[in-house]
Every structure is written in C-alpha cells, then in structure tokens.
C-alpha cells in the first residue's frame, strides 16, 4: 500500500480529494495532508511517502518550490493539482519530473487513470530496488531457511546468526508456514502472480517488524516466519493465532489473496526451531481437508504411555513407511493390522477418525514431495474430511483409506516412470506451441499432471534457467524474428507473442535486447 500526502491550502479541497475515491482499491492510502509547501516539506522529512499530490498556488512556499526542495530528501512521485490559469506552471512542473497534472476540480475518472499508471511505475521501481537489495538479503534468507530446516550446525550458529541479525539470545521461538492459495490458478498470469507474491512479502515484512518475526521464502508460493521473543507470549496459542489472523486479514485486504497458515509449537532452544517449522509445514498441509484460507495449528505432542496406543502409533508409521517405499502389499497389510489394532483396543470413533485424518495429511505430503500432481486426489472440495467424520463403522473407514492408499501408490508409480529429460522436452514443446497465450508454470503443470514446484525445479536443472526465463526467451526471440522479417506494428507483434500490455512488452524487450523494439527494427533496416 503506497502512502499519499495531499498538499493544498484549502481544507475543503484536501478533504474532498481524500474522499473522492476509495484509495485503497487502487493500492494507495492517504496518510496525511499539508496546507502549504513548508508544512509538506517538514512531513516529508519525518515520514515516508510514495506519492505527493500538490496544488501550485499556496502561501509561504508554492507547489513548484516544494517540488524542487523535496527532491533533496525524497524520490516520491508527484502529481500537480492545477486550475486553468495555472497551465504554464503545470508545464514547468512537468519539467521538474512530476508524473502528471490534474485540473481542478479533480475528476474521479481522471484521478483513477493517473493513479493506475503511477501504481504500475511505483511497483516496478520497488521491484527493481528489491532486486538490487537481493545481494544483501539473499544471505539472510539462506541462513533463516537453513535454521528452519535444522541445517546449521552448532559451530555455525553464533557467527551466521550474528551476520543475519537474528536474536539468538531470545527466550523462545515459534514458526509459521504461509502458503498462497492461488498457486494452482492457471488463469492467473505470471506477472499478476509475481505482483501478488511481491505484495504478500511486503505485508509479511511490515507486520513482522513490529512482532519480532523473521521472514524467508520457502518456495514460490510458500513463506516461513520464525518468531523470536518472550516465552510467555510465544507460548500462548491464542496470542500466536491472533498474529496469524492479522497476517491473513492483511493479505486478503491489500493483496486480494487468501493464504493458508500453519502454526508450529513454541520451542526454547535454537536447535528445536526446526521442530517448530516442521510442525508448521505439516499443519499447513492440512489445507486439502480444511479448505483454503485456513489457520491450522499443529496438534500438541502426545505423551500417552498407554501400550496399546503406542503400538497403534507404530502400526501407523509402518503403513506410511511402506507407502513411502512404494511397497504396495506391505502397506495394505500394515493397514489391516492397524485396523485390527483399532478393534482390539476398542478405540473410540473420534480417535480412529483423527488417525485417519493424520494418514491423509501424510499421504498428501508424500505425493507433494514426489512431485506428482496432487489436485485430483487431494482437494478439500472432494469432501474427504466430511466423509471421514460421517463414517459410521470401522469397515467404512478402512475401505475409504485403503482406496485412497491404492490411488496414491498408483500415482507414485506413474510419477516414477516419468523420465526427467522427457518431461523437460515436453515442457519446451508446450511453450513453443502456446507462447502466444497466457502460459504459466501452473497451467503447464496441469497439462502434464505434475506438481508446479517440482516441475519448476526439474526444468531449471535441465535448462539452467527458470521456466519464466525460458518463456521470455522464446517470446523475445519470436518478437525479434517478426520485427526483422515482417511489416507488422510493434503492438501487433506484442500481442502475437503473448503480451497483453504494450508497455510491459516494451520494458521486457529493452531489458532483453538492450534497445527498444523500434530501435531494433530501425537498426536492422539500416544494416540491410
């Protein structure tokens, strides 16, 4: 959300502009108003603003003086508010680098049009700035990711965490796992998906600044947070849930996206942070049962010493291990032994159903980790949770679980038979055929029945570039070919190679070739 400062000596004008539109619908928030240039300059020194809307004719310091002076302290975008008699002043403002001018009284549609354009420019600028900072932040991300996965040894803790500015001396630690729910939406363009990721990361960073949280990117659609702080606060499940609800609400409001959040347990030692994060990931994987937008807490560790229940836990682990090893007969036999154990232990129905739900979550993670497309087997819309909870007999539960395990084993077998080189060639062929459409890694993964994250890693391992980089390369090479060998207009070529927005094509083409599309076409004509 970009912060806005409105500068006008007329209070009514400031207030009317504030309430002319719903600013947040367009990615902006009116943070403050100033009655003249001097007051505005003082506000700009004290706070951060992305956009300044200023009148020209004001007492003490007019708008043009303000623009000249503010360039010493901020690179905020500027829009001039001008009356008809101020047109020459507005022209001077354009020379000073203002983004646009609006005639007073400001028209709602004119304001929206300018804001949409400025929002795109500000977003692109922040993306560039983030890339420039990546060198500094990449190290911190790696350290946090290794910490969450238990990959930092004791000898590395002190130095690595000090360099990453992580407060290792805190009393307690607790992890969240946050997953975007739109990751499998094939209708979402790559650019829209990237903008959503960018917005969500900004929201997480901002909220964590105030709560002692440290954010890292786990994958293109999942983030991790490690909280470090007071044991009393982080040990309070309700308090941590409120933090998760605040994150979900902010993402829903500002990024127009829902997220599923898994909450791990509180730990008192650095070495146990990995346990908390592992529990948070397992909780988030329960999305296929609970549905999107859920906040899921890891169940507390069970400490029963009841022999029968301990044996049931061992039987469950035996069945899952056989599934993981693709040993079909052993897995189904282990399931039968588990159900016999249910009957002999006279296990209450709610406990048996809880174990079945745990098995489903573990099967989901098994399929996901194998890189198979889990959408057809695991989707909350299939009603698995409701079916399990409505089951009236152990036989019903067994038939359902056995059927699901068999389907998972068949899917894993098909996945094992897929040769990586064959998949890589198939993806390249799909891109060459569909580059003119809004193609994405998610849509391609759906076509070949694979997990998008796994497919992305497989493709990069073979191509030495990401899927999105390869799509851009195909589109840019085709655009160059059309510029060289046809008389088509640039906008026609942009549409033909899959760019719905001409300005986006211009930017990507220049970044790819070093020259604009027009310059490229002209230079090729001159050389022939």
TrEMBL record:
Indicate the segments forming the Response regulatory domain, all copies.
3-119
The record's annotation in SUPFAM superfamilies points to: CheY-like, Homeodomain-like
Swiss-Prot/TrEMBL keywords? Cytoplasm, DNA-binding, Phosphoprotein, Transcription, Transcription regulation, Two-component regulatory system
* Coiled-coil features, chain-numbered ranges: none
Q: SMART domains this protein is in?
A: HTH_ARAC, REC
InterPro entries per the UniProt record, alphabetical: CheY-like_superfamily (IPR011006), Homeodomain-like_sf (IPR009057), HptR (IPR051552), HTH_AraC (IPR018060), HTH_AraC-typ_CS (IPR018062), Sig_transdc_resp-reg_receiver (IPR001789)
Compartments, record wording: Cytoplasm
Query: What name does this protein carry?
Result: Response regulator
Which source organism?
A: Cohnella yongneupensis
């Amino acid at each position: 959300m970009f912060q806005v400062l409105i500068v006008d000596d007329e209070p009514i004008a400031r207030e009317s502009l504030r309430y002319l539109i719903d600013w947040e619908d367009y990615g902006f928030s009116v943070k403050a108003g100033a009655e003249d240039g001097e007051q505005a300059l003082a506000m700009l020194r004290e706070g951060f603003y992305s956009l300044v809307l200023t009148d020209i004719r004001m007492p003490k310091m007019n708008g043009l003086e303000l623009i000249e002076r503010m360039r010493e302290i901020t690179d905020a975008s500027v829009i001039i508010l001008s009356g008809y008699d101020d047109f020459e002043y507005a022209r001077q403002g354009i020379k000073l680098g203002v983004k646009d001018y609006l005639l007073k009284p400001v028209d709602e549609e004119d304001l929206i049009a300018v804001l949409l354009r400025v929002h795109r420019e500000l977003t692109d600028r922040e993306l560039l700035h983030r890339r420039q900072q990546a060198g500094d932040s990449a190290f911190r991300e790696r350290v946090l990711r290794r910490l969450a996965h238990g990959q930092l040894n004791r000898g590395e803790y002190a130095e690595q965490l000090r360099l990453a500015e992580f407060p290792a001396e805190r009393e307690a630690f607790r992890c969240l796992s946050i997953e975007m729910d739109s990751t499998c939406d094939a209708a979402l363009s790559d650019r829209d998906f990237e903008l959503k990721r960018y917005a969500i990361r900004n929201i997480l960073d901002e909220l964590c600044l105030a709560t002692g949280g440290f954010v890292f990117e786990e994958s293109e659609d999942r983030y991790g947070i490690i909280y470090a702080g007071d044991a009393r606060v982080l040990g309070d499940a309700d308090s941590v849930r409120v933090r998760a609800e605040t994150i979900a609400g902010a993402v829903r409001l500002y990024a127009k996206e829902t997220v599923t959040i898994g909450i791990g347990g509180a730990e008192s030692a650095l070495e146990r942070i990995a346990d908390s994060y592992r529990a948070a990931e397992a909780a988030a994987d329960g999305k296929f049962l609970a549905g999107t937008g859920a906040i899921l807490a890891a169940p507390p560790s069970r400490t029963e010493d009841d022999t029968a229940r301990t044996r049931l836990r061992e039987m469950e682990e035996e069945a899952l291990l056989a599934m993981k090893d693709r040993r079909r007969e052993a897995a189904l036999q282990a399931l039968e032994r588990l159900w016999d154990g249910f009957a002999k232990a006279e296990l209450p129905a709610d406990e048996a159903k809880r174990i079945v739900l745990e098995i489903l979550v573990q099967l989901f993670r098994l399929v996901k980790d194998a890189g198979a497309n889990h959408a057809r087997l695991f989707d909350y819309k299939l009603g698995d949770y409701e079916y399990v909870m409505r089951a009236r007999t152990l036989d019903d539960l067994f038939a359902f679980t056995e059927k699901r395990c068999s389907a998972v084993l068949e899917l894993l077998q098909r996945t094992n038979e897929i040769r990586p080189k064959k998949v890589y060639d198939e993806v390249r062929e799909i891109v060459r055929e569909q580059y003119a459409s809004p193609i994405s890694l998610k849509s391609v993964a759906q076509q070949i029945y694979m997990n998008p994250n796994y497919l992305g890693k497989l493709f990069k391992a073979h191509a030495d570039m990401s899927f999105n980089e390869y799509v851009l390369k195909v589109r840019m090479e085709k655009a160059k070919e059309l510029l060289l060998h046809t008389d088509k207009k640039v906008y026609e070529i942009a549409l033909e190679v899959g760019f719905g927005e001409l300005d986006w094509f211009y930017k990507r083409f220049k970044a790819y070739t070093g020259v604009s599309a027009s310059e490229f076409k002209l230079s090729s004509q001159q050389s022939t």
